[in-house]
Write a structure and sequence with these properties.
The complex is a heterotrimer. Chain A contains five helices and nine strands; from the N terminus they run H-E-E-H-E-E-H-E-H-E-E-E-E-H. By secondary structure, chain A is an alpha+beta fold. In chain A, the strands form two sheets. In chain A, strands 1-2-3-5-4 form a five-stranded mixed β-sheet. In chain A, strands 7-6-8-9 form a four-stranded antiparallel β-sheet. In chain A, a hairpin with a 4-residue loop joins strand 8 and strand 9. Chain C is built from eleven helices and eleven strands. In chain C, the strands form three sheets. Chain C has a five-stranded mixed β-sheet. Chain C is an alpha+beta fold. Classes of the chains: A alpha+beta, B alpha+beta, C alpha+beta. Strand 1 of chain B pairs parallel with strand 1 of chain C. Chain A: It is found in: Cytoplasm; Nucleus. Chain A: Keywords: Cytoplasm, Exosome, Nucleus, RNA-binding, rRNA processing. Chain A: One of its GO terms (cellular component) is cytoplasmic exosome (RNase complex).
Chain lengths: 316, 399, 371
């Protein structure tokens, strides 16, 4: 579907120039970023609610940039940073009455919009939501609907809009799209969206069963010969830091009830190396890993929500 | 085996036979032969003395140009000619000098007094809009229901405010058509203790009077369906089965296997509800006519607007599922649905289970588990048994 | 508007009364032996009829129909296209002119060798839905993801479907998979669409390549010489189709029970709905899991029933200001919350386990004669 309302840039998108000489330098920016965290260590999360005064509830979430990205920003060697970090803004409008033409609903009607800012990723996005953005919206809706107590708000609607200001990469920008070109970054984006939306919903004072948070775990292989190497389980992976990701899983998790409201697993998880004595199948380990990551994000989430309450009490 | 994938079935396209043709042209004042075994070959009287087209006509086909006939439903006349032309595909039907064409498949058209099952689709300020499988939504005014509090009282503004506590979107109601408007839409009422909200059971939609239901399409899938089906076809002139107006639309069925009593409502519109029989409802329906005011209060408020199910035993649930499948099998094979065929099909399904059970005792667990599914090969057997049974009954009556 | 709202969610919301929902839920959650409305066993699928190669104008096609009249047709078309490396990667071709060391690492050429997921395009047409509605997009992404995601290391089809589409470094096939549902779906259409796509891909043929190496491709115009997209082996040696496309199965959990191929009513009372994509693994006998997606259970959007004790129309009831949240037997409550990990694990196990449902479904599909 063509966007007829705006004058768009060239359809293929533009990107900054790359200089071949930089590629050849062994110390330059063309080095792949290395993961410096432990396999079970998460990136730091910045989360704050109530950033947007006009909305009923809002939140802003940012992942800590990887060490290499921080270094590259401090001391730029290339125009293109080696990796990117997620930045998401979420607004919640409602509960507000449904439009007159709408049919009766005994529950709160939830609509979610996920939109990448045109400049969020390396490739420019159009203003109209594409398939992957709609797909993300559906995932997010599933995740949130399980947590909201919708019958407390009959005949009303809740609109949740997420703007992705900076998106996670699907792979290291220096890699050509190879056989593992699936959109892994999308899963990190979804996890971030879930956590951010949950904070914004709490900020809007909508009844929830629990704060739902998102977490990602993946089976990665860093060896150059991916066929022989044994993939390892890592939490909260930055796709730019790994040569190939074999399979990844994102969950939306409610720790108080120990329940999953959304699960999205993809990729071949059959060849994972687990610790000795671990008799879980690898997909179970993957799901458990994602749940652990979500638990970690939840500590930040509940702290951020508590913080916003104390702030508003202090203001009053 | 949890999954069965079959090659596509090519339907028997047997050429139209002259014999079966005249069975399609039905005279409404004449009882239709049900045996279907060897029909006496008789030409319809209609055709003998006038040049009226054979049983089935298609739109645009001239039914007759004899000026003695009057134009009925499903036909039209050109202003300057006397010929009657069909507007729908169906059977020619004549009532005295009135010629009409009954469509083979059509939507339900409400008539006053019809017992229907409907689903509330919209709640307005003083009435409900009800889906009754008709072209237009029927309406159920707030003034046409029994208000709680016993005494037949006028509706108040308080009732209007809490209209959703009586019936809400999605609720199933059993009601009667009170009047039919100019545009064909119906107005319903539930001013009887037999009527009200439905619970304790399952709903299913089949073809209504001479027509098709909205949620379930009748598919002719089975092998030899047409042969058996024609023997059991609905007497109303339709060949596709479904529910027809009949003497009893509601009855209580004594089920086997410890299922207890189960009530079946065949809505004239093709919506069917099968539910556990409760004594309270029985008392209500049997004493509808002369219930005292105090008693009315008791009964009316006990369950009419409840949405809470009673405790229903697994046995009863199983038999309710069996009954609903039997009806689905009937529809699949184009057999009319009424008390006789449903009861017959139920007995046949029990018999089929016995037959199967005998030679499958030592089968593995998978097969055991799938035994209750009737719509596959078992459906054909049920229909065979049913046809046999009905034919025997007919013969016995004749003798 | 109600249509629009239903479409915005991945699953449709049927209109069922609370009493019906409660009846269904209790029947389906009976311990050990659920009673399904149509009498099927928990793992039993509805019988289908299937045929392949029905459309002469396509490279491959299939049709599957349910007994209730729902039918899906899939047509696969292939076009030759020039390989363009994605704009967001390094411009390897210009780099290649420098002839530098990068070139020899084999990294930049990998796109041309192992193929790209974008070369497989899938579109789903469901009557009553716009092509940008959530449901068709969600279904399409779900099926495409497992299709391009399965990377086989078996010699017949190394690199999976994507690699099979590579002609040479400069040219590739683009595969259009068009799924058409002939009527408005009576239940969640995923299993139907997935099985039909599976069969259509198995019957897909690509013209035989006559050129060699890096030449501009030209093909044998004899259709009889065309090669199957999913290669077949000689009837004598092992299975007829060494590699088969993945299959997506819909599983729901109701109470303690796990139920397969749910119809519309069953899915509307489910606690959790998962779509699980599997394929045969060729290193071992076991099945391989390709993807799991949870689908929003429509039961969350249903209307709750009112217990008799709180019904204002009942004598002796006390209309509650705040409806109580606890469960009353026989009264429907919309499902809240998510699903336990143990339930998810059990659902996956029922699909993947030895002699499980996944195996049976694949065996059933293998029994279909593909022309």
């Amino acid at each position: 579907m063509a966007d007829r309302r705006r004058i768009n840039g060239p359809p293929g998108g533009t990107r900054p120039p790359v200089y071949a000489s930089l590629q050849e330098s062994t110390t330059g920016a063309a080095q792949r970023a290395q993961r410096q965290r432990q396999p079970a260590e998460l990136r730091k999360i910045f989360l704050q609610t109530g950033m947007i005064p006009t909305a009923s509830g809002s939140s802003y979430l940012e992942f800590e940039p990887s060490a290499s990205l921080a270094a590259a920003r401090a001391n730029p060697k290339s125009l293109i940073p080696p990796s990117s970090a997620l930045k998401v803004a979420c607004t919640v409008h409602g509960p507000k009455p449904l439009p007159r033409s709408a049919a009766f609903s005994p529950n709160l009607v939830l609509t979610t919009h996920v939109k990448y800012a045109p400049f969020a990723a390396r490739k420019r996005r159009g203003h109209i939501r594409d398939a992957s953005e709609r797909d993300l919206g559906v995932h997010l809706e599933t995740a949130l609907r399980g947590a909201i107590i919708a019958e407390r708000w009959p005949k009303s609607g809740l609109e949740i809009t997420l703007t992705i200001i900076e998106a996670e990469d699907d792979r290291w920008w220096g890699d050509a799209p190879d056989s593992h070109d699936a959109s892994w970054g999308l899963m990190n984006v979804l996890a971030g969206c879930i956590t951010a939306a949950s904070a914004a919903i709490a900020d809007a004072h909508i009844d929830c069963l629990d704060l739902v948070s998102g977490g990602v775990a993946a089976l990665v292989s860093d060896e150059s010969n991916s066929a022989s190497s044994i993939p390892r389980l890592m939490l909260d992976v930055d796709p730019a830091e790994h040569r190939s990701i074999l399979s990844a899983c994102v969950v939306a998790y409610m720790p108080a009830r120990d329940e999953i409201t959304e699960i999205w697993l993809k990729g071949d998880s059959s060849r994972a190396a687990l610790e000795k004595g671990d008799d879980r199948s690898s997909h179970e380990a993957l799901i458990d890993g994602a749940v652990d990551a979500a638990r970690g994000a939840n500590t930040v989430l509940s702290e951020a929500v508590r913080e916003s309450i104390t702030r508003s009490i202090a203001q009053a | 085996m949890p999954i069965t994938i079959l090659p596509p079935v090519v339907e028997d396209q047997s050429p139209y036979q002259a014999d079966s043709d005249d069975s399609m042209s039905v005279d409404s004042d004449e009882d239709v032969e049900m045996t279907g075994v060897s029909r006496p070959h008789k030409r319809p009287r209609l055709q003998a003395n006038s040049n009226i087209g054979t049983g089935i006509v298609t739109p645009g086909e001239v039914v007759t140009d004899d000026p003695q006939w009057m134009r009925g439903h499903g036909t039209y006349m050109n202003p300057l000619s006397t010929s009657i032309i069909a507007t729908v595909a169906g059977n020619v039907q004549k009532t005295n000098k009135l010629l009409s064409v009954h469509p083979l498949r059509a939507r339900y058209t409400p008539e006053i007094g019809d017992l229907v099952v409907g689903r509330i689709v919209e709640v307005q300020s003083k009435r409900w809009k009800v889906d009754v499988a008709a072209p237009l939504l029927a309406q159920l005014p707030l003034s046409a229901i029994n208000l709680p509090g016993g005494i037949l009282r006028r509706r108040t503004s308080a009732d209007e405010l809490q209209i959703r506590t009586f019936f809400s979107e999605g609720d199933l109601v059993i009601a009667e058509v009170q009047s039919v408007h100019q545009d064909g839409s119906a107005s319903l009422h539930t001013r009887s203790l037999k009527y009200g909200k439905l619970r304790n059971g399952v709903f299913l939609a089949v073809t209504g009077t001479g027509g098709s239901g909205s949620a379930s399409s009748s598919v002719k899938g089975g092998v030899g369906a047409s042969a058996v089906g024609s023997a059991l076809a609905a007497p109303g002139g339709s060949g596709t089965g479904g529910v027809v107006r009949s003497r009893r639309q509601v009855w209580t069925h004594e089920t086997a296997n410890g299922g207890g009593e189960v009530d079946i409502i065949l809505g004239v519109n093709g919506y069917i509800y099968i539910y556990k029989h409760t004594d309270g409802a029985d008392a209500a329906s049997s004493t509808t006519e002369n219930v005292s005011i105090t008693r009315l209060e008791e009964v009316a408020s006990s369950s009419i607007y409840s949405s809470q199910n009673d405790d229903i035993s697994p046995q009863t649930r199983r038999e309710i599922a069996r009954l609903s499948q039997c009806i689905q099998v009937l529809v699949q094979y184009g057999v009319r649905v009424d008390e006789e065929t449903v009861t017959g099909a139920y007995q046949a399904s029990l018999q089929v289970d016995l037959e199967v059970g005998d030679d499958e005792d030592e089968e593995d667990e998978w097969r055991q588990e799938g035994r209750e599914y009737l719509q596959g090969a078992k459906g054909g057997r049920i229909i065979q048994l049913l046809a046999l049974d009905l034919a025997q009954q007919k013969n016995r009556k004749k003798a | 508007m109600s249509n629009q709202r239903q479409a915005s969610s991945a699953s449709q919301v049927p209109h069922l009364s609370p009493a019906e929902l409660s009846y269904l839920y209790t029947s389906l959650s009976l311990p050990k032996n659920p009673i399904r409305p149509d009498g099927r066993s928990p793992t039993q699928f509805r019988p289908l009829s299937a045929e392949t190669t029905i459309l002469p104008g396509t490279n491959g096609s299939a049709r599957i129909g349910f007994a209730d009249g729902t039918q899906a047709i899939v047509g696969v078309k292939a076009e030759v296209e020039k390989t363009v490396l994605a704009a967001d990667t390094l411009d390897s071709r210009s780099l290649a002119q420098h002839g530098d060391a990068l070139n020899r690492e084999g990294e930049e050429g990998s796109a041309a060798v192992s193929g790209q997921g974008e070369w497989v395009q899938m579109s789903i047409e469901i009557p009553g839905y716009r092509d940008d509605d959530a449901l068709p997009i969600f279904l399409g992404e779900m099926m495409r993801e497992s299709l391009v995601g399965s990377v086989e290391n078996k010699e017949e089809m190394a690199g999976g479907l994507k690699a099979r589409l590579v002609i040479n470094k400069r040219w590739h096939w683009r595969l259009y998979i068009d799924v058409l549902l002939l009527s408005q779906p009576l239940s969640y259409p995923l299993p139907l669409l997935s099985l039909t796509t599976h069969l259509a891909l198995l019957s897909t043929k690509l013209p035989k390549l006559k050129s060699t190496g890096e030449e501009d491709p030209f093909f044998d115009d004899d259709w009889a010489a065309a090669e199957y997209l999913y290669p077949r082996s000689k009837p004598s040696s092992g299975p007829f189709h060494p590699v088969r496309p993945p299959v997506t199965i819909l599983v729901v959990s109701v109470g303690e029970n796990i139920i397969f191929d749910p119809n519309r009513e069953e899915i509307s009372v489910a606690d959790a709905v998962l779509a699980i994509s599997i394929t045969r693994s060729h290193d071992s006998d076991a099945l391989k899991l390709l993807s799991i997606r949870s689908i929003d259970p429509p039961s969350r959007l249903t209307q709750s029933g009112i217990p008799n004790s709180e019904n204002v129309n009942m004598i002796g009831s006390t209309p509650a200001e705040n409806p109580s949240q606890e469960e009353v037997s026989g009264v429907w409550r919309p499902r809240r919350g998510g699903v336990k990990r143990s339930v998810v694990a059990r659902m996956i196990k029922t699909v993947l386990g030895k002699g499980g449902v996944g195996e049976e479904v694949l065996e059933g599909l293998e029994g279909v004669e593909v022309h």
